[in-house]
Amino acid sequence: MTAIERLVKELSKLPGIGEKTATRLAYYIAREDAVSATSLAKAITDIKEKIRFCPGCLNLTEGINCPICSDTRRDKTTVCVVEEPQDALAIEKTGSFKGLYHVLHGAISPLDGIGPDDIKINELISRIKNSHIKELIIATNPTTSGEATSLYIARLLKPLGVKLSRIAFGVPFGGDIEYIDKSTLAKSIEGRMGFSS
User: Fold this and answer.
1) Direct distance between the N- and C-terminal alpha carbons of the chain, in angstroms, rounded to an integer
2) What is the pTM of this model?
């Protein structure tokens, strides 16, 4: 197997990268100078050597704690539960959430062989029992596995007396109702909120 073929094979393992894209990327990397290729290889190696789980929220971090858990201005009584680190990043970009996060690193999916013990639910329960968390916002994806995960978490945590809420799903701002798929529209009707004056 040639070096290009090996690179195509490895790049094809990445999510969302098919053989054609992997081939295009491999040839692009081959055309780049040695400094650029070495820089890319170093960035990949650094991620494996320097990135770890934050002991508080299980997000990815280079430090002892992630910047969010280290921020003393954050509301430590409110925790938003997300499936993946990039979900927390997306919420952070809105600037609307000032609490902490808990990253599950997946969602319950029996068809894929992923059960509750395969994601970070036990760590969430332990965290709630050992801290002053008052509200848990469940922000799993609006998928079958995301819904199963949110229901499982809600059932487990109900006896602990923490306030549970679920993010609303629905029509995107600027979207036309006639073009919204029926599942999204149904969720937006179910998750409706009252007007505040």
Assistant:
1) 68
2) 0.80
